[in-house]
Structure formats: C-alpha cells, structure tokens
C-alpha cells in the first residue's frame, strides 16, 4: 500500500483511523458497531467506520427533511452551480479518490480513475440539466384555458449502492437528485464504506462553503438492516437500489408495501452474440475486457458468448491465447490486467461456479483457480476461467460475480442466437458483433434483444453516462444516469388554468345550477 501512496490518498480524502459513518454534512455522528474495511488488494485492514443505529437514522431523516424545505426553493440552475463546484472538487481529487476505489474495491487504478471520471461527467450532465427540467405544454379542449405540466422536487431520495461501483453509482443518482431539488441519504456497501466517507467529505465541503444547510447530502452505514430503515420509511419517497436480484426483490416489496417509488438496477447475465460476419479481432478485445475487466464484477460484465458454429473454434482459440497473456495481481500496478475479487466469500462463489458448470456437463477450456503465494496473500485473487456450456445449465442462468465466461454455440440464423441470449431472467446489457446490417438490425428490432442496453460492435460493459442505464425483467426496470432518467427523481404535476369568466366542464358535460 505504501509504495502506491495509499496513505497520502487517505489523508487527502479525510479518512481517519475511525470514521463516523453517519453524516448530515459537517455534522458527523454514529453510535453503532464498527465496520472494518479490508483491502482485497493486500488483505490489510484500512480503517474502521462506525455504523448507523435507528436513533442516528432518525436524526438524519429529520435533518434531510428540514434541508429539503429550503433546497427545493433554490432555483434549479443555482442548484446546478453547487453540483458544478462538486464536479470541480472531484477533478481536484480524482487521483486520490481513484486510488481509494482501486485499493478498497480491488479494480485497476485505471478503472478507479474511470469511475471518478464518470462522476465528473454526470456532474457536467446535471449542471446542463439544471436548466432543462422541462415539462410539456398541451392544448386545452376548453376555450380560454391553458394546460401544461411541471416537474417538482420529490423529497428525500434513498440511495443503496453496491461495492463494485462504490462511488460512480452514487454520483449518477445524487447529482441528478440534487439538481432536481431533492436531498439524498446514501447507504454505500458495507464492503466499501471508506469510499462513502470520502465522497461525503467532498460533498460536505462544497455545501459548507456555500453556507447550505445540513442534510442535503447524508451518509449512513451498515448492513441490510440499515437499508431497511430507508425502505420502510414513508419519509423516503424514492429508493434507488443497485445490487443483487435477491436484494432488489426485498427492497421493491418493502417500498411497494407503502406505495413508495423504487428505482432498481439489479443483476445482469450479459451476452455477446458473435456471428459469422463478426470482426474477430474486435470481438476478442470486447469479450476479454467484458469478462475479466473489474475481475468480472460489473453488472454489465460479459457472462456469455453466443458464437456461430462456423467460427466457434476460431473464436475459442483466439480467446484461449488472449487469456494466456493476462497478468493477474495488484490492481494499483498498472502492468496487471486483473485484480482481486472483493472478498473470500466472492472467491468461494467463483470456485463453486466452476465446480457446478463441470457437474452440469460443461468443459473448462481455461481452468481458473485461486491464486496463492507472493502478491496473493489476501486470498482474493483468482484466474479468469472459460467454460463451454449450455444456456440451460442452472449455473449459466445465474449471475456469478467473478471472471467466468461461458461459451455457447448456435447454428443457423441470428434469430437462434437472439433466442438463446434472451432466454435468461435478467435483461441488462447485450451486444452483437457483426458487419452484417440485417443481423444488426434484427438484433435491435422489437423481436431482438430484450435488454435495457443493446450494442453493436462494442462489448456489454462500459456504458457512457449520457444514455439511460438499466435493464428489463429481473434487472428491475429502473433507469439511472442520462437521457430522461431525471424524471423519476421528480414529481409530475398537470396544471389547467382558466382565464375566462365562464366555467366550462371538460368532455362537454352540462351541469346547470
Ligand atoms: C454497475 O456495474 O453497477 O457500464 C454499473 C458499465 C459502467 C457501469 C456499471 N459504466 O460498465
């Protein structure tokens, strides 16, 4: 850690030995148990975070609700100005924050920087958006009437994020929610609490410098029980949750029970279809980055390759030799391609998946295995693996958050490949590699991919912030980030105004008194 300047990064971000995991801005408090954050890079305990109790949460929600009353009245472009300043702070702290992401979560330093860049990008997007929270104007059917719609701030937005994008996913939500006039309460993953502390420190400094009230940005920490404080609380009209399908079902039901809104971004089982017209070189780059980048821990990671039988062996051989070139090790060392998994539980799930695919009749063509010895002391480093499999294997139907890639073969028309690709419960990201216009358009058509993201000649991961991000089916249906995803953070109101001295009723109804 020392040689990569982790100590300097932690102090630049205001991380202490023991951190208060509950914050409403400059007020930091917490009375719960200590969460220890371990780095999967070297197994070291980085520092501790005091978790949030129900009493702490009650203070947070009171501050947040109070802050909302004034924040919503600040003109949206002025809220955008605050987000602009927040983006500037992120530019200043890009390197230490990228390093912390890499060290606490285990993704490569390049990807850590990329994550902070996504935060900066969404801030820029949100600043522009702050002058474009547009509604429509309609023509009334009644004379002397005007009809339009407007978007108002919603209230307290709860954000539950996962370990794999420990900072960017919060920013997607919070930057939009802030310009929309909402205040946010964030529960980061208990596996990456320090990323949460660092981001909250940055946000708090901006709110403080602008003399804004406590509570616009709040942080809470702990396990699912702390998440439940938000999902069950009527004062939180929207809960945005990123994580597993299992978690999403629990969150969705709790929020729906009180008729709140939820925005869910859950698991994927993303495939790349490789047709006879694919550019093989591009396919290999897209597939390998998609499958082993972030050690296979993106919700958009490539899990399945659906390859036409006529090029199957060629693609398979090229993949095996590409996997041969991969160097696995400390993600802060930029010569490595693959870093560790988040923890030993993840390593166990990876090992189980490899066993299971073989039990079900699959064949490992790149073996995988857990790495030991120098540089691998944390026990979290594994070798990316490739298995030949069938789409209907239970393990193939399941999202394993690890670098395990399944090769599936199809024959005949691209429609057969599309059918295999859609035949899973998840619907996040998908891709086709082809230079054939007909195949590409079929894939994008209504009878094509059923996912929220469908790409042509790019892999499944690495989405830009400008598009709406999310997926269908058990991926949860939510959309975050770009396009008009902001609308879910606001409440819509339809207004009809009569500027005559008559009161005509709609639908021509006569009601004489
Ligand atoms: C996630 O894994 O939860 O598309 C988000 C990507 C990233 C975001 C992934 N921009 O890979």
Automatic annotation (TrEMBL):
Gene3D superfamilies: Aldehyde Dehydrogenase, Chain A, domain 1, Aldehyde Dehydrogenase, Chain A, domain 2. It is an enzyme of class 1 (oxidoreductase). The keyword Oxidoreductase applies. InterPro entries: Ald_DH/histidinol_DH, Ald_DH_C, Ald_DH_CS_GLU, Ald_DH_N, Aldehyde_DH_dom, ALDH7A1-like. Its EC number is 1.2.1.3. Belongs to the aldehyde dehydrogenase family. Homotetramer. This is aldehyde dehydrogenase (NAD(+)). The lineage of its organism: Bacteria, Pseudomonadati, Bacteroidota, Flavobacteriia, Flavobacteriales.
């Amino acid at each position: 850690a020392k040689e990569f300047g982790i100590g300097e990064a932690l102090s630049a971000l205001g991380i202490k030995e023991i951190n208060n995991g509950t914050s409403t801005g400059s007020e930091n408090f917490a009375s719960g148990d200590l969460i220890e954050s371990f780095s999967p890079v070297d197994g070291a305990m980085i520092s501790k975070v005091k978790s949030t109790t129900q009493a702490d949460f009650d203070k947070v929600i009171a501050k947040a609700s109070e802050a909302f009353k004034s924040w919503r009245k600040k003109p949206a472009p002025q809220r955008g100005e605050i987000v602009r300043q927040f983006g500037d702070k992120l530019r200043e702290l890009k390197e230490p924050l990228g390093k912390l992401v890499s060290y606490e979560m285990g993704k490569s330093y390049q990807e850590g920087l990329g994550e902070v860049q996504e935060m900066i990008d969404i801030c820029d997007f949100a600043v522009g958006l702050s002058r474009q929270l547009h509604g429509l104007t309609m023509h009334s059917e009644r004379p002397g009437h005007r009809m339009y719609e407007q978007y108002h701030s919603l209230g307290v937005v709860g954000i539950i994020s996962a370990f794999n994008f420990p900072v960017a996913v919060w920013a997607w939500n919070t930057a939009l929610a802030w310009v929309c006039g909402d205040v946010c309460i964030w529960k980061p993953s208990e596996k990456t609490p320090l990323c949460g502390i660092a981001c909250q420190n940055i946000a708090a400094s901006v709110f403080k410098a602008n003399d804004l009230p406590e509570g616009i940005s709040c942080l809470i920490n702990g396990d699912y029980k702390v998440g439940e404080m938000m999902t069950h609380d009527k004062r939180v009209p929207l809960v945005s949750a990123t994580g597993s399908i299992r978690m999403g079902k629990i969150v969705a039901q709790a929020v729906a029970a009180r008729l709140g809104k939820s925005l869910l971004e859950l698991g994927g089982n993303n495939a790349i279809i490789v047709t006879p017209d694919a550019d093989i070189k591009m396919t290999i780059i897209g597939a390998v980055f998609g499958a082993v980048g972030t050690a296979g821990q993106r919700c958009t990671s490539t899990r399945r390759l659906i390859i036409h039988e006529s090029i199957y062996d060629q693609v398979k051989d090229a993949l095996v030799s590409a996997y041969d070139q991969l160097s696995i090790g400390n993600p802060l060392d930029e010569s490595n391609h693959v870093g560790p998994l988040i923890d030993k539980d993840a390593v166990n799930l990876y090992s189980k998946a490899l066993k299971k695919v073989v039990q079900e009749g699959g064949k490992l063509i790149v073996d995988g295995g857990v790495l030991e010895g120098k540089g691998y002391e944390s026990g979290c480093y594994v070798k990316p693996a490739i298995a030949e499999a069938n789409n209907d294997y239970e393990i193939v139907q399941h999202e394993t958050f690890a670098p395990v890639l399944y090769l599936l073969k199809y024959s005949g028309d691209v429609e057969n490949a599309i059918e295999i690709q859609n035949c899973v419960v998840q619907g996040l990201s998908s891709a086709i590699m082809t230079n054939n216009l007909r195949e590409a358009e079929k894939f994008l058509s209504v009878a094509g991919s059923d996912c929220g993201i469908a790409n042509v000649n790019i892999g499944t991961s690495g989405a830009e912030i400008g598009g709406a991000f999310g997926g269908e089916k058990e991926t949860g249906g939510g959309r975050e980030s770009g396009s008009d995803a902001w609308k879910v953070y606001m409440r819509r109101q339809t207004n009809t105004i009569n500027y005559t001295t008559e009161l005509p009723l709609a639908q021509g109804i006569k009601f004489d008194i």
